[in-house]
């Protein structure tokens, strides 16, 4: 074959290759591209603690940064890469009680270090969990060893007692809980640093374990759970967020106050509440609230179960 003929043949083959490439472009995994970009940024993760009879786990629900807390979803390949990169034994996480960071604790093991840590039947894309040992009262963690900023603000015992008296005598009756029924409830109080105002935020939860009878009329029933959030206004503390649940656990899991963290780095913490935390059921519903004006408004929700697909 002469040089001219060889050149024509090579050109023809090259043209055929280009046509073939145009008709059959290489497959690009856009999901993995997004996952790898996220991992390259070395994000700080917010994790939620879940407990069951197998022990304590923590599950990532979002990324923390200047854009705020962003819900986290990945491809199966992405979740496994996250497990290798950030959620494996030897790395540490920071636990929070209320708004107070505790000392970092090591991760015992990741989801896929050996046999899967846990499984969700029929789930193709499980959200990974880590095994962790954290104290009671801890519901939120962040990855890494540097805690989110928190400004400690104290409240005098006498002032706190005055606020709780107002809740008992005015706020609870307005929500359907008569003063004569208050003895039925167990009360828990959290005083957290949010910087929403110049004083701490107070979260008061009333729980009555008595379930609503099947024959009862919901409209006429008193709440089985009442959560009142209070912040300091011009004339003293006043409600800035209220939840009531008539049904108890028969219809839906009760809300739990998880903590207050500044997840968007604006100097003010957000409040986090969650539903249910039994990992075997896969439920992991989490809501975040931001203080605007004189009230807490929902700005984040993670309503998926631990099975992403």
Task: Tell me the structural class.
Answer: alpha+beta
- What fraction of residues sit in β-strands? 25-35%
- Give me the strand/helix succession: HHEEEHEEEEEHEEEEEEEE
Residue runs with pLDDT of under 50 for 5 or more positions: 6-11, 21-28
Mean pLDDT across all amino acids:
83
- List how many beta strands DSSP finds: 16
Shape: globular
Radius of gyration: 26 Å
Number of helical regions: 4
Percent in helix:
10-25%
Q: Strand count, sense and closure of the main sheet?
A: 8 strands, antiparallel
Span between termini:
58 Å
Explain this structure to me?
This protein has helices at residues 3-23, 30-40, 76-85, 157-174; strands spanning 44-52, 55-64, 70-71, 92-97, 100-101, 105-106, 130-131, 140-143, 186-192, 201-207, 225-233, 236-245, 255-261, 270-275, 285-292, 295-302. It has 309 residues and is an alpha+beta fold. Helix 2 (30-40) packs parallel to helix 3 (76-85).
């Amino acid at each position: 074959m002469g040089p001219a003929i060889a050149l024509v043949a090579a050109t023809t083959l090259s043209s055929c290759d280009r046509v073939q490439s145009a008709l059959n472009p290489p497959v690009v995994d856009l999901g993995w591209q997004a996952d790898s970009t996220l991992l390259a940024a070395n994000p700080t993760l917010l994790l939620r603690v879940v407990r069951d009879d197998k022990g304590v786990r923590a599950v990532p629900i979002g990324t923390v940064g200047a854009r705020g807390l962003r819900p986290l979803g990945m491809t199966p390949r992405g979740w496994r890469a996250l497990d290798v990169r950030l959620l494996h034994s030897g790395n540490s996480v920071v636990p929070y009680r209320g708004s107070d960071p505790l000392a970092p604790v090591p991760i015992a093991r990741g989801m896929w270090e050996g046999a899967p840590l846990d499984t969700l039947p029929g789930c193709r894309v499980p959200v990974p969990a880590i095994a962790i040992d954290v104290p009671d009262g801890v519901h939120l963690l962040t990855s890494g060893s540097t805690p989110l900023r928190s400004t400690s603000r104290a409240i005098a015992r006498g002032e706190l007692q005055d606020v709780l008296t107002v809740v008992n005598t005015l706020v609870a009756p307005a929500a359907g809980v008569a003063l004569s029924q208050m003895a039925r409830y167990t009360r828990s109080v959290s005083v957290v640093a949010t910087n929403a105002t110049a004083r701490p935020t107070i979260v008061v939860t009333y729980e009555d374990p008595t379930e609503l009878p099947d024959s009862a009329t919901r409209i006429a029933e008193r709440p089985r759970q009442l959560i009142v959030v209070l912040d300091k206004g011009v004339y003293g503390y006043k409600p800035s967020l209220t939840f009531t649940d008539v049904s108890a656990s028969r219809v839906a899991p009760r809300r739990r106050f998880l903590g207050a963290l500044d997840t968007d780095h604006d100097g003010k913490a957000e409040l986090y509440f969650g539903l249910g935390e039994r990992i075997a059921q896969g439920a992991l519903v989490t809501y975040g609230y931001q203080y605007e004006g004189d009230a807490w408004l929902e700005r984040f929700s993670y309503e998926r179960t631990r099975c992403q697909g």
